[in-house]
Amino acid sequence: MTLITLVRHGQTDWNLARRIQGSTDIPLNETGRADALAAAELLGEVTHHAIYASPLVRAHETARIIAGHLGLDAPGLADDLREREFGEGEGMLVEEYLERFENWHSAPSGAESLDVVRDRALGALDVIARGSRRRSAPTAESIIVVTHGGVIRSLLGHASGGTLPREGDVLRNGSLHRFEAGPGLLRLLDPVAI
Prior knowledge:
Elements: E1 2-8, H1 13-17, H2 30-43, E2 50-53, H3 57-70, E3 76-77, H4 94-101, H5 114-135, E4 141-147, H6 149-159, E5 176-182, E6 185-188
Parallel strand pairs: 1-4, 2-3, 2-4
Antiparallel strand pairs: 1-5, 5-6
């Protein structure tokens, strides 16, 4: 088994404005860099062996900050960990999006469905976990994966049988969620974000 801690990237100016980023490549702001350091502090309580990230700059920079703080090698990039593509919804304020499309499960023109996001993210985690099992000693390897709110929500839903996240739950920037991954398995270890 491989232990995987999913970390949501630090804050961006679009997060602060409650604007949908999706695949739009928005950098961290100063608060976001502080979010990354705070996550690194929490992650420092356990030994980690590697770090991976979405290639979007907000996730990649968060991962670089964490890696530097923990003395890990540079983050590996996994394209399938990128945020959900929102198509014509990208750049909209959250209130505008919900008014126009009614809920997060709607797929505006050019947007990915949540099922597609979940499936590609599961595939990325499987590749990461398989690589970990080839390298690891008899003990489980612990991997950090920095990604996005939509990706984490889709994986929480999958691992919890649809019970998490609950309606209205906010996944804050820099939050941590721990999982155990194995062949065909993703099990949530911590039911609440750290």
